[in-house]
Structure formats: structure tokens, C-alpha cells
Amino acid sequence: MRVRRQVSGALAAVLAGALALSAGPTAAQSGPPGPRYTAGAPGAGDAYFPFAGNGGYDVRHYDLDLTYTPPAPAPAPLVGQLSGVATIDLVATQDLDRFNLDLRGLDVQAITVNGKPAGEVAPPAAGAEVEGAAYWHVQDAADRIWELTIQPRPKIKQGQAARVVVTYGGATTRPTDIEGVLYGWVTMRDGAMVVNEPEGAMTWYPVSDHQTDKATYGFEITVPEGKVAVANGLPGRDPVTEGGWTTWFWEAPDPQASYLTTASVGDYDLRFSETAGGLPIIDAVDDNLTPANAAATEASLALQAEMIAFFEETFVPYPFNSAGAIVDDDTVGYALETQTRPVYSRAAREGTVAHELAHQWFGNAVSPERWADIWLNEGWATYGEWLWSEESGGDSAQASFDAVMEIPADDSFWDLAIADPGPFGLFHGAVYDRGAATLHALRVKVGDEAFFAASQEWLTRYDDSTATTDDFEAVFEEVSGQDLTTFFDVWVRTPIKPTTW
Ligand code: TRP
Ligand code: ZN
């Protein structure tokens, strides 16, 4: 049974106050010597999603031990049951009195920090002291605030490592993002499609849900025998079946952003292959695709090794330990570039596979520092589609560019400054197509040699990290030796169709 605490508007206001405080100037330079323990910020500082991620620590590794029961057959409600034990290894980046994790729609049963249990208390008033090791969970759906606060005792000193174990669970439903689009742990009749962008990881595990805190992952996912659970990376060991349940083990040793984790569950067929270079490819394809979707999917997935070779020649070596796909007969309405193993709805089409593969370099290895920088993901992935089309005998990148430039100047398509699309504009068509056109125009401006050299420098300099549009501009200026201020102003910062640049 799930008991939800109702949170008053006043409490939301208190939390918002905490956010404003923690976003202000940090500790005085001339304070007293010795530790000054304060609360970690309830957000990572992203203007679009102020409560996504948290401050005061850096997560190194998540170990997620999950047990999932999919819904019963129709007409039973489309609700699953998830229980989890998340073991989170972190390092404090300040002297920590308290810190937050993000967790939405599930309830906490127990928390330990370095083996010491914390007890659940009601959320305290702003500035109020709480006795001893404690935690409290605020879930305010109206204001989209989901914050689990943990007060460890003893306090954690800056630089100190801590292991936080959260035991949690509850009913899973079908969460939606700020635009109302399905994301996170999306319960399906035959399992779950798990696609977190931008801040839906918190719907299935306690997390610092922002890409500025990448971490490595281990997964142990127990599902009813016959179901397959697929996460990022490689199988850590063979699945174990006992008493009608199967446990699947996955290891993702390359740092990844929380929006790129998955642990999808379904009636998948697992297929193992590898590229000519020996990179493992693991595809999980739903048994129940329609014949037409199954045929299209087989044809596209068969091209993955060639696409990877093409992007490796064009850019830098593939950044992770494995590749592959999860293709579900259900739909969340889109595909997502989950790290190493993108999720596809109903079918994997060739252009989409090229897009999600390009994201492994652009978006996954190098991630947008703030959600405002999303065009660096979607513009590049779309440009990857254009390049693959040209490579495979379809339209040239120039022809794709020309098609975008045929959109009339008074079309609303041009009304978006793609370097600041707003939280409701993350997946606007212009972020994709104007983004790709920006890259093509940049290529023509600086020449192929500088363009591809700068792309490689970008991928090398910011590998396993995050970077901004300004960082991107700086790399291209540095490598090309050109002043690109006007170029980037016209293409990504001005909501008007570019005419000269
Ligand atoms: N990032 C995904 C892609 O382009 C798409 C995506 C994620 C999306 N969430 C969305 C598209 C919500 C529309 C709405 O590969
Ligand atoms: Zn994309």
C-alpha cells in the first residue's frame, strides 16, 4: 500500500526559498577556520529544471537492485510494482550537514549512510534543526518538486566518500515530462519502457538527476521468469532463474548521465553480435512487432556496425564498451539515445538508428551542460542522419540543408533561438533541423578540414563530461582561427531566419 504525503503550497515555497539561498554566493572567504557544515543545494543550478540534480556532492557509482512486477493482463489497471535497493557511492564537495536526492512517485522504506540508519521525520520548517540522522521526502506534483533530503550523522566532510543505501518502492504508472510526454519508468502491459530525458530518472531510482553529475552503474533486475530486463552496457554475468523469477545483470562502466539510463522490461529476444572492430552489439527486439515493423527493424539494425564504422572514421572512436538497441512493440512516441542501447518505439527505422547512434558521441559522451544547450545534442544527431544519408547513397547533406532553407522566413519554424529554447521547447523541430543546418553552415564557413578537426577536438576535450554552446563556439574559433561571434549569434541566438553569416 502506498501512502502519499500531501505537501502544502507553503512547503513548496520553503523549498523554493532554499533553492534561492543555495543559488546565492557561497561561503565567505574570511570565515572561521575549520569545517562549516551546510545543506547541499536541492538543484544542480539548471534554469529550466531548478530542482533537477542536487549540490554538495558528486556521485561516483549507482548500484541498482530492482524487482519489477508488470501489470496483470487487461482489464487490470496499467500499474506495475517496483521495489529497489539503490547503493549510491558519492564524495562530498562541501562540508555537508544535509543533502538531497531526487525521487518521484515512489516511497522510501529505509536509508543508511555509511551503514548508519536514518529515521523518517516530517519535513521541518525552513531553518529548523532536526535531531540526529534523519530523512524526509517532499513530493509536490503541482510544482514538480520531488526532493528526498538526507541528514547524515556524523556529518560528511568535504572530500569524504559516503555510501548511501536507499530501500524504496511502490506502484509504477506512466509519468509525463513538463510537456505532458511519457517518460521515466513508463509502465507497459508487457513490462516497461524506460526513457528518462530530461529528468525522469527520478521516477525509478533515487538520483542526482542532472547530467553534470555523471556516474557509472551496475544493475541487478529481477523480473517474472520469461521476461527480459535490458539496461546499459554489458551483461555482468548470465541471468539467474529461481522460483519463477529471473535476475538480469548489467554493468555500465563508462560514466553516464542519468537521463541516459534504462532498465527496460519486456518480451525481448536478445541477439549478440559485434562490429568488425570487436565492439559488442546487443539488440533486444520485442517478440510482438508487427511483421512490417519487424522487417524494417531487422534491416536497420543490420546497418549498426557500418554506421558505427562511418561515425568512427568521421569523428573519433566509439566512446563506450558496447552498442545495440531495445525495440519495443509499445510506444512512448519517440526513440531515445539511452547510453550504449537506444530505445525505439514500435520499430527502428534507418534514419532514427543513425540519429541515436550519432548521439552516442554527441550528447552521451559529451553532454549538454544545461538543458538550454540541447541543440548540441539534437542538431548533431540530425546532422549525423544527414551524413549517413549521403554516405549510404541518399540525399546529400547539402540537399538536406537546402530543404531546411526552403522554409519561408515568415514560418514560425524560424521563431526559436535554439540556444535557449525554454523547457517546453527542448524537442521543437527547429532544435533538430535548424541545429543541423547550423552545423552544415558552419562546415561550409570554416571548411571541411577545420570543421572535422574541431569536431574531433570537441569530442576529445569534453569526453565523459558536459559543455556549453559557448564552449562549442570557442573550440571552433580556436581550431579555425576565425571569429565566429556573428555566425553563432545569427544561427543559434536570434529567432529569425539567417540570411547572411
Ligand atoms: N532525444 C530524443 C531523440 O531525439 C527525443 C525525445 C526525448 C523526445 N524526449 C522527447 C521527443 C519528448 C519528443 C518529445 O532522440
Ligand atoms: Zn535526438
Give a description of the structure.
There is one protein chain. By secondary structure, the chain is of the alpha/beta class. It has a domain at 367-492: Neutral Protease, domain 2 (Orthogonal Bundle). It is 25% helix and 29% strand. It has helices spanning 9-23, 291-301, 304-314, 350-361, 375-391, 397-405, 429-446, 448-461, 469-480, 485-492; strands at residues 38-39, 57-69, 80-92, 96-101, 107-113, 116-120, 134-140, 145-151, 161-172, 184-188, 191-195, 215-224, 228-231, 234-235, 240-242, 245-256, 263-266, 268-274, 280-286, 323-328, 343-345, 366-368, 465-467. Strands 1, 2, 3, 4, 5, 6, 7, 8, 9, 12, 14, 15 and 16 form a 13-stranded mixed beta sheet that branches. The longest helix is centred in the C-terminal third of the chain and has 18 residues, at 429-446. Bound molecules: tryptophan and zinc ion (ZN). Residues 181, 197, 334-337, 355-356, 378, 427 line the site of tryptophan.
CATH H level, superfamily name of the domain at 367-492: Neutral Protease Domain 2
Distance between the termini: 61 Å
CATH class of the domain at 367-492: Mainly Alpha
Overall mean pLDDT stands at: 94
SS-based structural class?
alpha/beta
The portion of residues assigned to helices is: 25-40%
Q: How many beta-strand segments? A: 23
- Bound ions, cofactors and other small molecules, one mention each: tryptophan, zinc ion
Beta percentage is 25-35%
